Amino acid sequence: MASEQTHSGNPKVDIEYRRKKSAEEMRYQIVSFTMMIFLTLVAFIAVGYGDFTAWFIVPFILLLAIVQVVFQLYYFMHMSHKGHEAPALFLYSGLFVGLVTVLAFVTIIWW
Amino acid sequence: MSTYAQKKGFGATIWEYLTTVDHKKIAILYLIAGGLFFILGGLEAMFIRIQLAVPNNDFVSAGLYNEILTMHGTTMIFLAAMPLLFAFMNAIMPLQIGARDVAFPFINALGFWLFFFGGIFLNLSWFLGGAPDAGWTSYASLSLASKGHGIDFYALGLQISGAGTLMGGINFLVTIINMRAPGMTYMRMPLFTWSTFVASALILFAFPPLTVGLFLMIFDRMFGSNFFDVSNGGNTVIWEHLFWIFGHPEVYILILPAFGIFSEIFATFSRKRLFGYSSMVFATVLIGFLGFMVWAHHMFTTGLGPIANAIFAVATMAIAVPTGIKIFNWLLTMWGGSIKFTTPMLYAVAFIPSFVGGGVTGVMLASAAADYQYHDSYFVVAHFHYVIVGGVVFGLLAATHFYWPKMFGTMLNETLGKITFWLFLIGFHLTFFIQHFLGLMGMPRRIFTFLPNQGLDAGNAISTVGAFFMAVATLILLINIVLTSVKNKKVGNDPWEDGRTLEWSIPSPPPFYNFKQLPLVRGLDALWVEKMEGKNGMTPAEPLGDIHMPNNSFIPFMISLGLFVAAFGALYRADYGWGLPVLIAGLAITLLSMFVRSVKDDHGFHIHKEELLNDDDKGGKA
Amino acid sequence: MHVEEKFTAETWPAAPEKQTLEAKNKFLGFWLFLGGETVLFASLFATYLALKDKVPNAEHALAKDLFELPLVFIATMLLLTSSLTSVYAMYHMKNFNFKKMQLWLGLTVLLGFAFLLLEIYEFNHYVHQYHHTFTSSAFGSAFYTLVGFHGGHVAFGLLWITTLMFRNGKRGLDLYNAPKFYVASLYWHFIDVVWVFIFTVVYLMGMVG
Asked: Touching check for B292 and chain A: CB below 8 Å?
């Protein structure tokens, strides 16, 4: 879903097209935002409810967090648009190094 | 401000260098500063070897010895090797990709001044109560117990320098991704550019853990936190993990640019293209990736357990594979080529057995069980000096000769260069080869003296002799530099006569805008492709037009100065009342300078087409 | 000069943040910086996870004693909404509507500032109610460093956006400042990304035990 310059030759047509595309994209953004609120609520309720075990809650809320971050990255930060190949590569590489670090710290610090 | 250098006064030249954002001038700044720190680190090495020349020596006290050895390691890695590599990456990489500067010239300057002020701050410790004394690795238990402010100088100084390095890394990455000349695809980039690219990616990901570790150390020592304080719930191994998650990629950051330099040298002086280009690129990337998975091989004896040790041992040994691919490719580049034994080529040829020697002892150390014997002995010291001196330092010395004409327009003397080479090579092996055996015979590392008649006397004496050879070699190199600068005999675009890549297609040194017209790249070894077709230069990819260049600025200096002042405030906050105000004032200087940079528009300036037409023989004829 | 060229809504390019080489470089350079920041925060998270609940004796409050759902929920809503308001700001920037962009950026700053105030209140509460401080235990040091670094990033972001708003208030949008607004909004989103993990890993997981 890229936003591109259109060249129909008629600036009035171009701008109408672009405005429509922008508005459409804003709808996606609102949907994303609503999803994020929903995911946040679910996470808080899962913790507040009290009847679930930690073995369920922890992976569950982590998963919810990851999904929410995907929305933030791909929609709010436009990582789904073209021209984001290098940013995505470096962000995922950083994430990889970060995850290896976290894994090490939760396994081989206290033993 | 659109003319090239006129006859400038001394003051004007100083101001030019204080405010430059030109990658070529910044490279010279890195070369000078890195060179001076290299001499300093070398002196520290001499003092170490003099103290260890004979048993029971009292040349320096135990405490002072600890400071000297800490500063030797810290200076050599952070203030000498890294900056010198940055000098060459800055000077040459933009030229190799056909760019007019790096992506962020202002940030390039900022990176240099941060490194510079960090290095000065660290070394001021000598005069302000004592240098850090817990080794370049500064493990937490020892560091927290270290009296005086030495470790504080270490943590704050490296934090400032490290910020500069991180900026440099991002700068090089964006430059390579966004600013290649038309026709230069990724797989047509020279190997030195590829190794700059991968090393910069390593910098981007390896420096943040160091940043965090240094903050934790600063907080524990100067602000009362408890990260490493066991009695309050802390754990000292956290430092080791953070340090080595940085520290292992760091050594690949050091060696990969050196590998890149050697790739250029082997191809140029065998008059033959680099063998196995794609596999060289692949191997470089793989080394970079694997470099992040092996850090705990520095921690085998901390009790991580057999499973963790085994995983890291295997991953460590795996790195030998892509490295081996590179060694064979270099050898096969020479095979069948028309070899010219210039000084750079001598270093390259000597690098092969020296680095491989260091590499194989690395595989020995990678075996976790065996490492229980080698750990903290001179065997380790021998290993890492073989790879660092035999790899990085040889690469830097080779690059100094190879790229001197491109950076300064003159050629270092070949005879003196060869004398330096032989003295340095002999000295290097004398010093460090014997240290393998000293380690195997049980000599621990980081000890300030040893007892006589334990079998260690002869080895240490020989090791010290080698150090003097290296010192003389360095002196001769300095004489070479002085004589060359005084003689000032100018050379042309391609003084080695067999240049294959774009940097040799422009004058030596290049005009400040590098390329009058961006070149059209038609293949790998872009200049060689044109030479083989009988042309004597590159075909332009664009018509002659106005060139947009960045303005100079004093703000990078000010931002760095602010942090330098703030560091003093942080260091002395607990001792003196003025500490906190000075910390705040320093941060305010930095923030204010950043603010001024943000709000004051800076659009650079344009060189007009007409001036370029007159600018025909900048730099001298071949 | 091209970069200070005056535009109209019709001539304004579709992707104003990437039209010049400087803009493309800023865009890429900032994403790379975010890659590095990811590793930085991962290291802080890792340290926190290693030192969570590590206190010298039983008199010290642990995660499950300290954190309260309502406060964290409000903070999260504030920051999440501020992320949306910055998206609106960029939408108006793409449509060359400078005044509306400034309005939504202003809302972003207000929400972010409210978040910070709430956080300061929260820290103050822990310090006085539970004697849970930066120096009281390894757990305290790790908590305040992780959450504090995030708060510091929020504060810096507020200064950044405010400076941009005031500096460019009189001259409107052009190809020189559009990339600056865009990069600042990327930063703001990233801070929200970090917060998602903070509220999950520190607060929610802390309350679960």
From this structure: yes
Q: Which of A94, A108, A110 sits opposite B205 (nearest CB)?
A: A94
Task: Write out the DSSP string of C15-28.
Answer: SGGGSSHHHHHHHH
Residues 6+ apart with CB under 8 A from B253: B82, B199, B202, B203, B206
Q: Hey, is the C-beta of B201 within 8 angstroms of any chain A C-beta?
A: yes
Q: Residue B272 carries which DSSP code? A: S
Q: Is C167's CB within 8 Å of B599's CB?
A: yes
Dist CA B349 CA B353 (whole Å): 8
Taking a C-beta distance cutoff of 8 angstroms, is the pair B381, B445 a contact?
yes
pLDDT score of B457: 97
Touching subunits of B (3+ CB pairs, under 8 Å) are A, C
**Contact (Cβ atoms closer than 8 angstroms) between residue B589 and residue B556:** no
Per-chain mean pLDDT for chain B: 96
Interface probe, candidates B228, B237, B253, B302, chain A, greatest A C-beta count within 10 A: B237
Per-residue pLDDT reduced to its tens digit, B213-232: 999 999 999 999 999 999 99
Closest residue by Cα to residue B521 from B255, B193, B249, B271? B193
DSSP class of residue B580? H
Q: Do C207 and A47 touch (CB under 8 A)?
A: yes
Give residue-wise pLDDT tens across range C27-84: 999 999 999 999 999 999 999 999 999 999 999 999 999 999 999 999 999 999 999 9
Q: What share of chain C is helix, strand, coil (3-state, %, to 5)?
A: 80, 0, 20
Beta bridge partners of B444: B377
Q: CB-based contact (8 Å) between C71 and chain A? A: no
Confirm or reject contact between B183 and chain C (CB < 8 A).
no
The whole-number pLDDT of residue B463 equals 98
- Chain C hits for A25, Cβ within 8 Å: 91
Tell me which chain B residues have a C-beta less than 8 angstroms from the C-beta of A105: 238, 241
Q: Chain C residues with CB inside 8 Å of A18's CB?
A: 14, 94-95
| pLDDT per residue as tens digits for the range B393-430 | 999 999 999 999 999 999 999 999 999 999 999 999 99
Q: Look at A11-25, B448-462, B510-524, C88-102 and tell me which has the smallest mean pLDDT.
A: A11-25
Cβ-Cβ contacts under 8 Å, C35 against chain A = 87, 90-91, 93-94
Name the nearest CA neighbour of B273 among B525, B537, B504: B525
- The rounded distance, in Å, linking the Cα atoms of C41 and A72 is 17
Q: Which segment of A15-24, A66-75, A99-108 scores lowest on mean pLDDT?
A: A15-24
> Which residues touch A39 (CB under 8 Å, ≥6 apart)?
A64, A67, A68
Residue C89 has pLDDT above 50, yes or no: yes
The residue with tokens 């923030």 is B591
Set of chain B residues whose Cβ sits within 8 Å of the Cβ of C58: none
pLDDT at A96 over 60: yes
Q: How many CA atoms lie within 13 A of B141 on its CB side?
A: 5
Residues 541-600 of B with CB under 8 A from C: 595, 598-599
Asked if C145's CB is within 8 angstroms of B215's CB, the reply is yes
CB pairs under 8 A between A and C: 141
Nearest to B209 among A101, A107, A109 (CB): A101
Q: What are the start-end ranges of the E strands in B544-604?
A: 547-549
What's the predicted TM-score (pTM) here? 0.96
Task: Find tokens 């309260």 and name the residue.
Answer: C68
**Residue C52, min C-alpha distance to chain A (Å):** 11
Q: What are phi and psi of B262, to 5 degrees?
A: -65, -35
With a pLDDT cut of 90, the percent of chain B lying above it is 96
Q: Residue B6: what pLDDT?
A: 55
B509: cis peptide before it, omega within 30°? yes
Distances (CA, A) of C43 to A65, B241, C202: 18, 10, 14
